[in-house]
Fold this protein.
Amino acid sequence: MSRKMKNRVLEQLKIERIAVEGKCVGHHEGKVVFVSNVAPGDVVDARVTRGRSSFMEAEAIAIHEHSSDRVTPFCSHFGTCGGCKWQHISYELQMAYKRQQVVDQFQRIAKVPLPAVMPIIGAQNTRYYRNKLDFTFSNNRWLTREEIDSGEDFERNALGFHIPKRFDKIVDIQHCYLQGSLSNDIRNGLREFALSENLSFYDIIRQTGLLRNLIIRTAQEDQVMVIVQFGEDDPDGIEKTMHFLKEGFPGITSLLYIVNLKKNETFQDLDVQVYAGKDHIEETMEGLRFKIGPKSFYQTNSQQAYRLYQVAREFAGLTGEETVYDLYTGTGTIANFVAGNAQQVIGIEYVEPAIADAKENALLNGIDNTLFYAGDMKEVLNESFVSQHQKPDVIITDPPRAGMHEEVVEMLLRLEAPKIVYVSCNPGTQARDVALLSAKYHVSRIQPVDMFPQTYHVENVVLLEIKSNDDQ
Ligand SMILES: C[S@@+](CC[C@H](N)C(=O)[O-])C[C@H]1O[C@@H](n2cnc3c(N)ncnc32)[C@H](O)[C@@H]1O
């Protein structure tokens, strides 16, 4: 960036519209300016944080005119915590903006003929909708400007969420609107207990401290899993903590802990100890049961995941005769969900424990027409794999944010399945892949689904149907 621009204040910048990733757009001297944490219609002073020849990024430092789209954020942590960045916009507008993001990305990137994008499927619960939250213990609590300016001493231990872009600072959460009252009680109760017992909170710089991380997962029918990660192998401290949780919160149905002496918080490679209750919780969907262990992935908004899978199943239009490939199957939830409507479903995913969960979930539900394979998609999905199984009539694909590898897209083009149902949490990479697939497919339906109210994230399902030879 031209150094001259950095920190320059752009005065009276009119915020025009929402762009990608929740940022809004204004213009200054003909250049696009991306500004975060504002709303279309605001007029702000914005300090430039980054600049390139064609655009700038800036943060609002003063608001002169408030947009009529603004509503009062309900969370006291809004603006500090990075969790719910769109609380200042009404839910109706959030939904409209999310749909518009899909329209914009497809028009700008896919550049193919499109049907009308359907109105987004909104969430009934716009608060307390997450089934998993991950809190961090830290001895380096984020202090507000007022706290610093007061010159007083404050408690520096904290239990909460990372400040955006700061790995070492944690905002101490008093109430989180993403998970219900038991979750809030457990987090606040454990923090109070740890402070009163002088248990040490983790120091990320020195990599010391007993209490490191707290994960709370819930399922319908009152099942609650709590996982505590300890940064030191201190049997007394661990026993004290776990005993407190067991006695204080009988609603916990799966109480687990992990001693994690590694540099990072991931625990896929570590042993999980069961302190009390079961080693898993169970989610249900349309009579199916899904076993969720501490290392298993499950969509974090269960109610909206159900809506999403219903859309995918409807787009697939199954009659019971089809061979379906479910690519990037995770723990096989979509595969098992559509199995009753297909002849067979084949799921592929590269995380081996997820594939083990997928198989277990099929067994648990008496589903005998699903097959699961672990491996990298571009290696597994090849001609010999297809010749060993039936050619797919329908492909459901739900890749990570980066979208599909080009070689996978090329394989899909060679496979020529009549239908591809493309589920994505990133309409930008989805639109890029749709452009490549347009060599043989046309887009016939586009349905956004809101999985994450109060954030700018949007999930999108696209139905691609093979073109007739005349159209190709
Ligand atoms: C968005 S999730 C899909 C979740 C799943 N469909 C569900 O609804 O629970 C994407 C999945 O792709 C898997 N994945 C990412 N890269 C992959 C690759 N190169 N090959 C195979 N699977 C991959 C991830 O492990 C993750 O489980």
Notes: The first strand starts at residue 9 and ends at 14. The mean pLDDT is 94. The pocket of S-adenosylmethionine is lined by residues 297, 299, 328-331, 333-334, 349-351, 354, 376-377, 398-400 (CB under 6 Å).
